[in-house]
Amino acid sequence: MLAKTVLAALLISSALGVGSAFAGPAAGLARPLRSAPPSQFITATKFTLAPFAFVRFCKDNSGSCDAGRGDAEVTLTPALRAELLRINSTVNRTIIAQNDDDGDDVWAQDVTAGDCEDFALTKRHQLIKAGWPTRSLRIAVAKTRAGEGHAVLVVRTSEGDLVLDNRSSAVRAWNQTDLKWIKIQSGDNPRLWYDI
């Protein structure tokens, strides 16, 4: 009797064009309306100023700031996922976390000690050396839950924008982090930055 009642309710709601809020054996047939899931990719809105320390980094390391090459999105195979995890974990272990001594923010890559942007730039550099396309690798600036400025590497993949953060060896989707996003590089031209 219950099955006939459920089926009748589903048929009536379907004919009227309304979703069923009925939870039961047939609940999978009519799904309740939900809000759209958050995007897998960061949405850049408008041009903004690059961090001043990054501008200085490009002046001293122009090759690292050349126009992007290759695909804007990497098809993430199991081998590439393993490489991404390995490089993230290795850089996190080998660089000693240390803030800039005199308060003057200096961005650098391939260092033995440094702060968040140095980790991000080193990961980007290591991935480029491993053959990853530069267009898929972008530095982003955000704030942590504690309100501190923070920089990370964002990798655009077939599974969405993934974040390589020096605070964790896990690689997470951008919308599954505790970060409040501020700005991100252009994949086509790393010297250009966008608001998020």
From TrEMBL:
Keyword Signal: yes
Pfam families given in the database record: Peptidase_C93 (PF06035)
Claim: Chloroplast is one of the keywords in the record: no
Cleaved signal peptide residues: 1-23
Gene3D superfamilies recorded: 3.10.620.30
Coiled coil: none
UniProt entry keywords in alphabetical sequence: Signal
Name of this chain's protein: Putative transglutaminase-like cysteine proteinase
Species, as recorded: Aliirhizobium cellulosilyticum
